[in-house]
């Protein structure tokens, strides 16, 4: 069944599309069509969504219907919109696009793109030896069916041990292995969230978490994070839980994506207490917990303060190790893990045994691998910060103490326009609104420092060039940007 976006909803997503820098010579219909393509490019507008009728959108945007008609026609011509008389118009994928490693849709001819839309590292050198060792271990499992809904015991033991070493005593029965952190979140939402239930999230936050919540038809409320190093406003966060009493709250306390903030230990304890009093379950995303930089100490896990099984922790191998190794996990009470396993059987049965064995060997060498990753990320972060200070000194950023991303405050509400312009010079960006709701955060941009330093410096140079171009007269033609599923 095709979903539909109403005129007022699309108007909020479009924001100040008509007042963006660098489009003084562009007709309004071309600017509107370009803005819609931009929403498709960064995932705020999915494929297969029916757009509002021309009259409805014209009324919502307070423009003429002729302008909307011309914009829709241009979108049909570019392959981003399909229309059928009497049925409406819905977004679609142009035929000259493909799926990238990020899951986004992109033109076939962009193989040389510097992709700053994804925040993940290439595989470490230890991966190949781990894979060879895993194949030698595999025969032990070949005599059975190969289905392990909670994961093979060796991996669950290794993950449980990592929690215990962080000060949170954990048994293998409290661990469920999943096919990545996103899969872990999806399973938890299937178990803990009914359609229409209230959910509290940070703003900004991880966009794929927003997508997962939207798929569950959750009622999303947000708690705004400060752009500076303060991060969470204690009174506001606790008040949002106590007064809103959401069914679930999704938090990223370690080097929050995208801001890089680290939640203090005292606030963690108070959040758990507030959640218990409000009847709120906490889903804690620990994707970046093993990547502190500059010797930053990490407070105890949020679940350390849980006495009532209110905290469900999720994590995975993607950030410190490799995204291609689809291994994630859930840490919860043993009964919750069994309920998750029962729900999982109707989805994907189990994670691949060979991948789990690779993960076992990587975790056995975690100390060395993670130390190398931290050193690599520190060099790349500092290179990116230096390039930004030199080329874009008006942009503001708080240096993160861990994680893999910078959250930049720009010199104007230009994030979406900048992302579209950067595509033309071979740089893919993740604009601020992708990390929030309803077209907000146009003054912000996420930049990961997961690419080699030379590529990051090159990318900043290209971004700086198009940033200054935005203040000049616009180019006469709009390029068709990337489309996201």
Question: What is the topological layout?
Answer:
Layout: H1 7-14, H2 28-41, E1 50-51, H3 54-61, H4 65-78, E2 81-84, E3 88-91, E4 97-99, E5 104-107, E6 114-115, H5 127-137, H6 153-165, E7 175-178, H7 181-192, E8 198-203, H8 207-215, E9 219-224, H9 234-244, E10 248-251, H10 265-278, E11 281-285, E12 311-316, E13 328-331, H11 334-344, H12 353-364, H13 366-391, E14 396-397, E15 405-409, H14 415-423, E16 427-428, E17 430-431, E18 444-448, H15 453-469, E19 483-484
Parallel strand pairs: 6-16, 8-9, 8-10, 10-11, 11-12
Antiparallel strand pairs: 1-3, 2-3, 4-5, 5-19, 7-13, 12-13, 14-15, 15-18, 17-18
Helix pairs in contact: 1-3, 2-4, 3-4, 5-12, 6-12, 7-8, 7-11, 9-10, 13-15
Protein name: PLP-dependent aminotransferase family protein
GO molecular function: DNA binding; DNA-binding transcription factor activity; pyridoxal phosphate binding; transaminase activity
InterPro entries: Aminotransferase_I/II_large, HTH_trans_reg/aminotransferase, PyrdxlP-dep_Trfase, PyrdxlP-dep_Trfase_major, PyrdxlP-dep_Trfase_small, Tscrpt_reg_HTH_GntR, WH-like_DNA-bd_sf, WH_DNA-bd_sf
How is this structure best summarized?
It is built from 15 helices and 19 strands. It has helices spanning 7-14, 28-41, 54-61, 65-78, 127-137, 153-165, 181-192, 207-215, 234-244, 265-278, 334-344, 353-364, 366-391, 415-423, 453-469; strands spanning 50-51, 81-84, 88-91, 97-99, 104-107, 114-115, 175-178, 198-203, 219-224, 248-251, 281-285, 311-316, 328-331, 396-397, 405-409, 427-428, 430-431, 444-448, 483-484.
């Amino acid at each position: 069944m095709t979903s539909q976006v109403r005129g007022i909803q699309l108007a909020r997503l479009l924001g100040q599309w008509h007042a963006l820098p660098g489009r003084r010579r562009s007709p309004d219909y071309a600017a509107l069509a370009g803005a819609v393509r931009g929403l498709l490019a960064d995932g705020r507008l999915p494929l297969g969504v029916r757009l509002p009728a021309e009259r409805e959108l014209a009324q919502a945007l307070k423009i003429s219907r002729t302008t909307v008609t011309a914009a829709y026609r241009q979108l049909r011509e570019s392959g981003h919109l399909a229309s059928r008389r009497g049925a409406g118009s819905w977004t679609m994928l142009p035929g000259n696009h493909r799926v990238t490693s990020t899951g986004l849709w992109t033109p076939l001819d962009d193989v040389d793109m510097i992709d700053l839309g994804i925040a993940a590292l290439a595989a470490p050198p230890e991966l190949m030896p781990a894979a060879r060792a895993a194949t030698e271990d595999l025969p032990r499992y070949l005599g059975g069916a190969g289905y392990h809904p909670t994961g093979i015991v060796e991996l669950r033991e290794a993950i449980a041990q990592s929690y215990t070493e962080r000060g949170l005593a954990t048994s293998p029965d409290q661990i469920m292995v999943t096919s990545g952190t996103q899969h872990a979140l999806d399973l938890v939402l299937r178990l803990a969230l009914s359609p229409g239930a209230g959910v509290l999230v940070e703003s900004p936050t991880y966009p794929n978490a927003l997508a997962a919540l939207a798929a569950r038809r959750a009622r999303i409320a947000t708690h705004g994070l400060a752009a500076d190093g303060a991060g969470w406003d204690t009174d506001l966060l606790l008040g949002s839980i106590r007064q809103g009493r959401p069914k679930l709250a999704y938090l990223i306390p370690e080097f929050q994506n995208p801001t890089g903030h680290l939640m203090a230990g005292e606030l963690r304890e108070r959040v758990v207490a507030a959640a218990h009093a409000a009847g709120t379950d906490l889903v804690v995303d620990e994707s970046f917990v093993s990547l502190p930089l500059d010797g930053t100490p990490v407070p105890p896990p949020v679940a350390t303060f849980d006495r009532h099984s209110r905290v469900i922790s999720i994590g995975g191998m993607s950030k410190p190790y490799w995204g291609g190794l689809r291994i994630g996990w859930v840490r919860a009470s043993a009964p919750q893990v069994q309920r998750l396993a029962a729900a999982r059987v109707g989805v994907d049965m189990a994670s691949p045994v060979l991948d789990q064995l690779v993960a076992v060997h990587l975790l056995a060498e975690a100390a060395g691998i993670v130390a190398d990753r931290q050193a690599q990320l520190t060099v790349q972060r500092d290179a990116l910060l230096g390039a930004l200070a030199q080329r874009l000194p008006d942009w503001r950023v708080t240096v993160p103490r861990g994680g893999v991303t910078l959250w930049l405050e720009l010199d104007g509400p230009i994030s979406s326009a900048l992302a579209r312009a950067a595509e033309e010079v071979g740089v893919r960006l993740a604009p601020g609104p992708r990390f929030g709701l309803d077209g907000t955060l146009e003054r912000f941009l996420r930049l990961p420092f997961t690419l080699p330093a030379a590529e990051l410096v090159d990318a900043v140079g290209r971004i700086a060039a198009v940033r200054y171009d935005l203040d000049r007269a616009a180019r006469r033609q709009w390029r068709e940007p990337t489309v996201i599923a």
